Every structure is written in structure tokens, then in C-alpha cells.
Amino acid sequence: MAKKKSKTKAKARSKPAAKKSARKVVKLAAKKPAKKAAAKNGNGAPRISSKPYGLDGKALTGVRILDFTHVQSGPTCTQLLAWFGADVIKVERPGVGDITRGQLVDVKGADSLYFTMLNHNKRSITIDSKHPQGMRVLNALIKTCDVLVENFAPGALDRMGLTWEYIHKLNPRMIVASVKGFGPGPYEDCKVYENVAQCAGGSASTTGFRDGPPLVTGAQIGDSGTGLHLALGIVSALYQRNRTGRGQKVLCAMQDGVLNLSRVKLRDQQRLAHGPLTEYSQYGEGIPFGDATPRAGNDSGGGQPGRILKCKGAPEDPNAYIYFITQAPVWGPICDLIGEPTWKTDPEYATPRARLPKLNQIFARIEEWTMTKTKFEVMNACNEVDIPVGPILSMKELAQEQSLRDTGTVVEVDHPVRGKYLSVGNPIKMSDSISEVTRSPLLGEHTDEILTKVLGFKAAEVAEIKNSGALSAPEKKEKAA
Ligand code: CAO
To answer: In whole angstroms, what is the distance from residue 236 CA to residue 85 CA?
Structure first.
């Protein structure tokens, strides 16, 4: 690096020196190296773009993804990559496509919201991967793509003939990224869906109330959570490939992803060996702990006592609630707000330790106050004195929230068959890689475009592939036979 720089400097000085007057030479010689220095960051990175922010492509412009994903976990990952500018080519089974196209259908004849909301900004090609001509197209795709992403059942990719060795021989730069239910071990051959992962990853055993059964959560931490993990793995592998030139395998097991998100509960498991978990409500209630992290209801995972409390309108309005945390640093303002100023100094209430056995009584008193206000009034009053609280927002409220529309987190998308629908846009905002949400592709919508423009097949080759039946629906093949 250093050598390169001094060469550049010499060049910059010597050129004008030969042609310009002495006065100009001094001027130019002083300016040019400064300009060069600004153009490089000293880390081997390219010159700094002169284009305005947001107008010099996107973070993953130039990256092409062979998207073999289906249902939710894999599509979440490739949708994120597409939002960052990758060219995502979704390979779907002819006639059927991703199974979610036809699941939970709300508009007859249209792709379901399940599918459309997970497959924005992608292109779709239909290929029967078990047909020799289908494999011909896949081979061409493997040669031209940077990443293959899949979330088939264990062994399915190998059964198609697409082993790591095969792919890597065709394209040693290819990153092969997979979601599986479990990592290597006794369960590695099992098929897994969202709630299976929530249960196997430790989330369900720690969610719900102590005296009730384990609960799954509505947030799709098994599917979408693992898709997020995989996206980070892929981007990191692309970054490493810049240095090594070679691809690698990236594996995210849903069990691992859920356990990673349940990290604080494994923390508590180990703390149990050193005594009861004092911030859990059951401690204050005098209920002994067992040998595994218990379910803690709505207690806060961060060690600060917290509860979901009724606000004006509850329980008739199922979402007229607020999450309230009695954080030690804001105990004073809480006491003032709820009209218990003496609790600030009363030794029975003044310290977190003194409050632990009385949490039920304390939260009951706070709830008396929150019930006199709507959740938004509570939120405003609390935030004025820096008390963090969480209004329980319904999906209806989120769909209507203007600020989420303004940032593109909630977007309205137009679809040629179903019309307008709401979706969640890219939750990751970047100042130089702006995401626009475009609709999901129709099944096989881009088959011709990909065969000719991406893979460069000639018209006769396209005809040969198509006539073989490798890209069309099995029903059609059966009728023709
Ligand atoms: N052409 C020809 N065959 C195709 C094809 C194509 N384009 N796309 C898929 N197939 C075939 C596969 O090769 C496989 O065939 P074989 O079993 O004969 O080898 C078959 O379709 C079924 O694939 P699958 O087993 O992945 O699908 P499934 O519906 O039976 O299982 C799921 C679905 C999600 C349980 C399973 O894929 C899985 O466990 N994936 C890993 C974990 C995961 O991602 N789960 C989250 C899903 S979201 O809740």
C-alpha cells in the first residue's frame, strides 16, 4: 500500500512539472497528492464515489443469487439480499412454485399474501431440477451466480445431484447457503417448521406463564429469525471471498437461531446454580425455582421488573395495555407520576431490593394509574420524564401508523392480480443503499428473460429446453403423453 502511494505521488508531481510554469507546478503539486489521499482510504478500498448518496447502486449490486428457497425462512433471507440490490433469481417447480403461493389464499386466483410478502424484488424461473434439460439450465445458473441459497429438507439438494462438490467444481467461487432445522447431530435429518424450531430452540419452554403450558410467540423467530442469520452469513462469506476468491458453505440451523435469540434464558439457566432469579416475579411471590429456567410471564428479560398493565378501555379492547418497567434509575419519576411520592424515600420501597417482594402490590398501584389513561396518554406522560414504556400496538394500528409509512417500513405494493396490498419493507435503513420494494414475481414470469439475457441461450436452445418439458407444469406433460 505504502509503495503504491509514493509512486502515485511521484507521478502526480512529475507530469505537471514537465509542462506547466513554475508557479503552476507548485500549485498542482500541492493539490494532487491531497486529492489522491482523499480518494483512497488506505485500506485498499476503491476510490470514493463522487455520485450523490443513494445514487451509486446498492450495497449488493452485482451479486447474483440462485434462490432455491421456499416457505418462509429461506425467502426471508433472499428478500433481504434483494432489497440490498442483489439480483435474486428464484427457481420454482413448474406448475406449482413455492408452496406458499397457494397457502392462506385470500384473493381467489392470486398469489397469497404469505408468498407476496416474502418474495419482493425477485425474479422467478420455473425449472424441473430432476429433468436433464432442467439440470442444464441449473448448471448455467450455477456458473453465473455468486450464491446458492436453499432451505430444502435435509438431503434434498444432494438428491437433485447438487452436492457441494458438484457445485464447487462448476463454480469454485459459489457460496452455498442453507437453512436446516437442526445442525449436525441426532436430529439433523428432521424436517422443521417455525413452531418446531421455537420449541427445540428453548423459546417455548421460557415463554408463557409459570402455571400454564409452554407458549410459542407470534414473531417468526424460527423462520424469519434464521433467515436473518443466514443473510449475515452470506454477506460475510461474500466479504471473505473478496480476499480468498473462493466460496464456502454457510449453514444456519433453526434450532441454533432460536437459541441465539433466547440467549438471556441460557444466561438465567446458569445463574440458577447460584441462587434464585430475584428479578422473576415468582421470587417475590415466594415460589421456589426448579432446575431449569422457568417461564416468566411478562417479566422483563433484562433484570428490571416489568409487567403488561391495563389502560383505559381494557379488557374490552384487547390491546389497551402497556408494558411498564420499574427501572431503578427512573423510580423517582414513576412515584411522582402515580401519586406515591413518599415511595421515593420510604425504605420499604426506595431500593430495588426492598421492592422485589412487593412487585405485585407495586404494579397493581401503577395499574390503578395507567387505567385512568389510554395507552398513548400513558406513553406521552412517561416519555416526558424519560420512563420507557411500550404501548401494545395492534396490527391494525401498525398498518395505519403514518411514521412507519413515511420510513418505508410499511409499504403499499401494487400487484397485477391481487391489486394493492400492504407489506413490511426493508427494516434495515442504509443511507447509500436505498431499498425500493417491488412486487413479487408471478410464477415463471422471468423464465425467458433469464434464459436469454442472463444465461445467453440462443433461440434454438431455448426451444429445445422448453420442448423437453423441463420448464413446464407436470400436468401439461401428463396430458401430452
Ligand atoms: N424441481 C424438482 N423437484 C423439486 C424442485 C424443483 N424445482 N423444488 C423442490 N423439489 C423437490 C425436492 O427435490 C424434494 O424432492 P425429494 O424429497 O424427492 O428429494 C421435494 O421437492 C420436497 O422438498 P422438501 O422436502 O424440501 O419440501 P417439503 O415440503 O417436504 O418440506 C420443509 C418442507 C420446510 C419442512 C423442509 O423443506 C425443511 O425441513 N426445510 C429445512 C428447514 C426449513 O427451512 N424450514 C422452514 C420452513 S418455513 O416454516
So the answer is: 16
Amino acid at 265: K
Is 152 near ligand 1, meaning CB less than 6 Å away?
yes
Atom index in ligand 1 nearest the CA of residue 157 equals: 13
**Is the pLDDT reported for residue 440 higher than 90?**
yes
- Note if the bond before 276 is cis, omega within 30 degrees: no
Number of domains in the chain: 2
230 φ, ψ to 5°?
Answer: -65, -40
Q: What is the mean pLDDT of residues 374-401?
A: 97
Q: What are phi and psi of 147, to 5 degrees?
A: -140, 135
Does the beta carbon of 130 lie inside 6 Å of ligand 1?
yes
Query: CB of 156 closer than 6 A to ligand 1?
Result: yes
What is the pLDDT, as a whole number, of residue 326? 92
C-alpha cell at 475: 400436468
Can 56 be counted among the known catalytic residues? no
Ligand 1, from 130, 152, 450: best to mutate by most atoms within 8 Å of Cβ? 152
Same domain, 383 and 466: no
**Residue 26 within any structural domain of the chain:** no
Residues 302 and 183 in one domain: no
CATH number for the domain spanning 77: value is 3.40.50.10540
